Amino acid sequence: MTDEKPAIILNGRNQFLAAAMFGLLALAFLADMHAIDRLLLAGLGDPGNVRQGSGIVHASAWGLTMLGSPHFFVLASAILVGTLLARREIDRAIFAVLTLAGGAALAYLTKTAFGIAKPHHLPGSEEIAATSFPSGHAVLSLLLVSTLLVLWPSPGRILQGAVWILAAAIVLGVGVSRVFLGTHWPSDVLAGWLFALLWIAAVHRGTSRLGRPVGQG
Description:
The protein is an all-alpha fold. 67% of the residues lie in helices and 0% in strands. It is globular, with a radius of gyration of 18 Å.
């Protein structure tokens, strides 16, 4: 097993910076400060109802957003953990369960907490809708991709570069699709990515201290 820390894992300083940025985004969300968000939206309008449309652009956006959906995440996670258990790679399976199931559970608890602090309501009703901070799709997509990158680091610089480009394209595509479809502020998506990076770094540190290697041998 390799002892080298995967590139996706934040070091101590970057973990602090990521946590500080997440805190600032949380405060901005609670204070309803979205001036920079509106600038980044480039005239798309504030998030509200899902933007309707047709054609290849909207179809592509919906296809990308599905890669961060809870249904896809649960299916992919089950296949991943099941594969590791079938290969009797128990330590790696434990790592995957902690990063995926643990991260998803904590993310949605966080969303619930922010929803209580600042409720979102469906138009014309008092029913509380899903909270927007942080973006669940952003969290789930990056948790899944980063877990795969940690468990199966690509050998060779060329192949590793190609895998990283593909992984970044998927995660970025999911995040952009959420903003484009009108379901999230850009800051919600950024907060989701920061949350996922912080969580997987914490799990990697914890499992490393317990002497449980997770990288590919």
